[in-house]
Amino acid sequence: MEATVDKIDLKKEDSGYYSAKKNPEIRDLDSYYYLSISGRCDPQANQFLKAIDKLYSVAYSVKFICQAEDMDFVMPKMEGFWWVDGGLEAQHKFAQTPPDEWNWKIVIRMPDFVEGDHFYRAIQKVKAKNPELLSNDEVKFELINEGLSVQGLHIGSYYEEEPTIAKIMEFIQDNGLQVAGYHHEIYLSDPRKTPEEKLKTILRYAVKKVNNE
Description:
Helix content is 25%, strand content 28%. By secondary structure, the protein is α+β, with helices and mostly antiparallel strands. It has a single domain, classed as Regulatory factor, effector binding domain (Multidrug-efflux Transporter 1 Regulator Bmrr, Chain A), CATH 3.20.80.10. The protein is globular, with a radius of gyration of 18 Å.
């Protein structure tokens, strides 16, 4: 009988990354590797949904390659970075910007044992199985380091995050910090199975200390 391979579950292995309280709090995060895909459109648009399909196709291909090497893992939660044109100074205008002008980067964090070679082989497998799915190098394998961050747990619709964001921004200002990264969401709930009012999403912002000199 073959031995059962233990699956790495990042939600359990690194619970601090995947948990948050309603009241804002500070976290100091390490660097992590992610699969990512970027674009610009309304999140209700077909382009966005196709991008998610592409990302998960590569993610599961990586998983199956690792599984064959006795390094299996539970698929991590999907995450997203969101911003509008104009740099960090313009991010307060996000709610007033039409959704079709939103920029996004959707990511899935990978376990530490996933390497560039796993990613390269996964891409080749996906292209061989469905050449039209990945027409170019849309999906990437990249290192992201947010470092010092402030986060809070939002419960409810993705389109009703303003009160939670306001609390986070007030906390950032009160603690002598300023935003140093784009709006980051970690989707703890599956919107296909969870009522909108019960959706749980971690809202996170990379920050830095204000230079008063």
